[in-house]
## 1
Amino acid sequence: MGRVVELSGGERLSLRAQLEWHLQYNHYPPVSADFVDSAIESIQSINEEEPDKKVKLPNSKVLTALEICEGLHLESFVNISILGCQDGML
């Protein structure tokens, strides 16, 4: 579950820093860092087995945690066994 990004010297990036990097560099066009808080809330909701919890995005849209996870490609940040996936595959 999740990503752990280590810098040289064994320092680890925080979840916030990992998500900022993910949204900026794994999407084209890049997703604004303003979406990090919604991404964190979505990840936490899914990991707490509440994928249908409504989460407000910074653009005022309201989506379920699962919809945000899929839209922002956050699968590697959540416990995918909660989503009923087999063999770690979505």
Note: Confidence is low (pLDDT under 50) at residues 86-90.
## 2
Amino acid sequence: MFEASGANAVDIAAAQMAAWAVFENAGIDPWVAAAAAFRQEGEIGDVSPEKADADVWRDAYEQAKRAIYRNAGDAPFDTDLRLIREPTQVSAEN
């Protein structure tokens, strides 16, 4: 999920599609990329064997920001790219 305070649904959708395209083009699961980036935070230098995965996360975020600014102009949005799990539906059937 991409969040940008003050952005409308069309802007958010454009940002999310841009980020998703990065993950698809890299052939990496967004959860893997996010976890790698999280683990890499705080490390000194880029010596992590997961650097490529973490870089995909950062690239997805940059592409999402570019998409929203292309759509909405140069509005100074506060942006964030986050992963969320969609709630699963529970069936009443056994």
Note: The longest strand covers residues 2-4.
## 3
Amino acid sequence: MVTSTSKNTPLNVEKTNKPNSNSEELIERIEVKDTPFTVIITEGMIFGVMGIYRVTEKYGIEGIIEEDREEIKEMVIDEVREITWNRIVQVMMLLMEKGMVEQDFKSKKK
């Protein structure tokens, strides 16, 4: 197994309001080095994304001790770094969809 490192330059955290709620939630974004992927950590979930699209399962971390959270975070980083046929097809589909959306936007703009 390859040990992966994440790009942890200034902590990328922002507050967001939950819909229909008065509470706030912290979101941490960790860019996975040399990939188009980002790991999102919220107060209750960790998952991998590419742009606005989620590419991994959501892993619940609410009530889990810090060491286990780090282990789950590293597992998600390893998951998005792993090059499989499934990941290749997934990325190609996302790129095609993004291209179609941009093409549709350009044609409507004319």
Note: The chain has a mean pLDDT of 81.
## 4
Amino acid sequence: MKSVFHLLKRAFSHEEEIHPVDRGMAKYWIKQRLAAVFPQLRKNPAELERAYQALSLEPRQGRHEGEADTVFEAVLPEGHELEQN
């Protein structure tokens, strides 16, 4: 019963604005991960920023049970599609 109430509450509530501190922390950790995965970005802040911007991350509130409160979804640039196997 509690989970049903929780789902209904989320369904009818408006999405809250992402707090600037949360947004900044997410940006920091994503850039750290990019630098770890792509070593050529470690000493090049301009390229690191371009790589971060190319991800087109869109923040949204978590909607599903077990999902984090804030979720960042990567949006593919127009003209790019994932290959379906």
Note: DSSP finds three helices and two strands in the chain.
